[in-house]
Design a protein that fits this description.
By secondary structure, the chain is α+β, with helices and mostly antiparallel strands. It has an eight-stranded parallel sheet. A six-stranded antiparallel sheet has the order 12-13-14-20-17-18, with helices on one face. Strands 23-26-31-28-29 form a five-stranded antiparallel sheet, with no helix packed on it. Helix 11 runs parallel beside helix 13 (about 385-395). The relative contact order is 0.09.
Length: about 625
């Protein structure tokens, strides 16, 4: 049950799934009777053998790859949900996709088959629970139960994933009298707060109170159930802070920690993914307790296709940058489903599909598609099975981030261990445009070899830059291998007394900044002017700007009093982290001024600029 978050300055957006959950929760005054079906149990509470520990260490060593059910469940594309909204999730459909994944994508590394929301709910969304308040498979959707489905997935050499919302679902409360499995004396009344405060992104569950050991016992019982069924992956959804909610009531860090502990106790390596649009301010907790975290809203459009460019594929270019440094082995930034394989069903142009796949690859996002794998078109197959792009995502290459401002034409890059660079060019405008990657933004000048990863061809040697004409929403993805010389730079500190401040601009402390200072309060007319920026000859210089900005902000950049160009600087993730982007500035030989003007809005804080010694 995922939902879109609230974007600052825009109307709040909530997914259809969230609305449905809230409406059904309000409509159901009482829970279903306790289920009487047999419950899988285990006489072993932990199997900490060598093999289990080795497997646990391998969880999320690289971004996971696979398929997820939600994109097709949530779409109104003709024929996908003939039995009503969200009805796609059935044993029959899951196994059909499993067969297709095994046949078409498994050879390329795709291995997870993840069941999303609804496996314990009937097609009218009424839930089922066992006698211990744990979710129970809906017999209409999964007549054999959940273990046989996992067994069948494993039989194809794949891994099985399952889903839960965070908290104790309201319908499972049972007037507080329902016992907790393997926890003598504990009931549902003991595991939640006495005032029955709600939690998660839809307030569809009661908040667990971990001051009572019974709450951990409840999570242990759920984890034990999934381990006994043979699941390898759990998506825990509606987690806060984030998921559109903040405050103590929606702080689910303790829940995520409890799940990590419970999973470890089962002895089964289970990947724990948390969702959605999580608060970056708590990223240390997400990294400590989970293997991956959704950084954004749902990618699905809840319309007559799986996704659309505007809702909200294109949001990721703004939202991913600030999270980049937090991704690595053991835990990854999750950009959500990659729906690029079905053409008309996806709802995207070919250019958009490639750009979508390019960003996911360079951001080191998990690559899990929500497409109908039985109907992949040839272009979709080419995107999903390009071994060079997959190797980029799965290998030791670090995540890329913008090296130019987040303008409609932008460049992302990362330096690789072998000295080459991953370089992506994006034209996010609604019309064709040329995009240039200048080698100065990468720190060198001269010649470089360029390889096109999507087309799997070498483009020869390019001097100082590569320029490509791109269609609307188009992209190119390169490996750039320097053959020239490293650039030398002249640094100018923003807080230098040689500079001129005006408006609200002030010198401020900054532990992440060079010199320990920055210029802040650049808003509503605040300006910073660097004086006496000296270059040997006239030309356009790629000036590297070090800055701090907890969100994406725009600023006007000009030289020598000439016309300014407005650039949007991507978020650095918080107000305690500095990053850099390069902006083109035309300078004359000798002394120059470079001005950063907030204009009528709020601009990033500026740490320093580095000016190349040659244009």
């Amino acid at each position: 049950m995922r939902s879109s978050s609230y974007a600052p300055g825009t109307p709040a957006r909530r997914s259809t799934r969230a609305v449905l959950v809230l409406a059904l929760t309000a409509a159901m005054a009482t829970a279903l009777p306790a289920a009487q079906a047999a419950t899988p149990t285990s006489t072993t509470t932990s199997t900490a053998g060598t093999e289990a520990l080795a497997a646990a260490d391998a969880v999320a060593a690289k971004p996971y790859m696979g398929w997820s059910s939600w994109s097709m469940q949530s779409s109104k594309y003709p024929g996908l949900n003939p039995d009503g909204d969200y009805s796609y999730l059935t044993e029959k459909n899951v196994l059909k996709q499993t067969d297709a994944l095994a046949a078409k994508l498994k050879p390329y590394g795709y291995e997870y088959v993840n069941l999303d929301a609804g496996w314990w709910r009937a097609k009218d969304w009424k839930p089922g629970f066992d006698e211990y308040a744990r979710q129970k498979a809906d017999p209409g959707r999964f007549p054999r139960g959940m273990k046989p489905v996992a067994d069948d997935i494993h039989g194809k050499g794949l891994k099985a994933g399952i889903y839960l919302p965070v908290g104790l679902e309201k319908e499972a409360y049972g007037e507080g009298k329902t016992p907790i499995w393997n926890a003598e004396g504990c009931t549902t009344a003991d595991i939640v707060y006495g005032d029955l405060r709600t939690t998660n992104g839809w307030d569809s569950a009661y908040k667990l109170d971990f001051s009572n050991p019974c709450a951990q016992k409840y999570v242990d019982s759920q984890a034990r159930l999934f381990a006994d069924w043979g699941y390898d992956f759990l998506k825990l959804d509606g987690v806060g802070p984030g998921s559109g909610k903040n405050g103590d009531q929606y702080d689910n860090v303790a829940d995520v920690a409890a799940w990590q502990k419970a999973i470890a106790a089962t002895g089964r390596p289970i990947h724990l993914e948390i969702s959605w649009s999580l608060d970056i301010g708590r990223v240390a907790d997400w990294k400590k307790y989970s293997n991956g975290w959704r950084i954004d809203t749902d990618v699905e459009c809840y319309c007559n296709t799986l996704v659309s460019w505007e809702n909200s594929v294109d949001d990721r270019w703004d939202d991913a940058a600030g999270w980049t440094r937090h991704a690595g082995p053991g835990g990854w930034n999750d950009l959500d489903s990659l729906d690029v394989g079905n053409g008309q069903m996806d709802g995207l142009t070919k250019a958009e599909r490639q750009s979508y796949a390019t960003l996911w690859a360079i951001a080191k996002s998990p690559l899990y598609t929500g497409d109908d794998l039985t109907k992949l078109d040839s272009y979709g197959v080419s995107l999903l099975t390009n071994r060079e792009v997959i190797a980029l995502n799965q290998g030791s290459t670090p995540p890329a981030r913008p090296v130019t401002p987040s303008d409609p034409q932008q460049v992302w890059a990362a330096k690789n261990a072998d000295g080459s660079y991953t370089v992506a060019l994006f034209n996010l405008a609604d019309a064709p445009a040329a995009v240039t990657a200048d080698w100065a933004t990468l720190g060198f000048t001269g010649n470089a070899g360029v390889r096109d990863l999507w087309n799997r061809e070498n483009l020869g040697t390019h001097k100082n830059k590569v320029t490509q004409a791109l269609p609307a929403h188009g992209s190119r993805l390169f490996t750039v291998t320097p053959r020239g010389a490293a650039l030398s730079w002249t640094a100018y500190e923003a807080e230098s007394s040689a500079n001129t401040l005006s408006g609200n601009a002030v010198v401020a402390d900054c532990s992440a900044c060079s010199g320990g200072k920055k210029i802040g309060n650049l808003y509503v007319g605040g300006k910073l002017r660097f004086n006496d920026v000296v270059v040997a000859k006239a030309g356009t210089y790629m000036v590297k700007v070090a800055y701090v900005s907890g969100d994406a902000r725009s600023i006007d950049v000009s030289a020598n009093g000439n016309d300014a160009t407005r650039h949007k600087f991507p978020s650095t993730g918080d107000w305690g982290t500095a990053e850099t982007v390069s902006v083109p500035v035309s300078l004359k030989a000798g002394a120059n001024t470079i001005t950063f003007d907030s204009g009528s809005g709020y601009a990033p804080d500026i740490d320093r600029v580095d000016v190349p010694k040659s244009s």
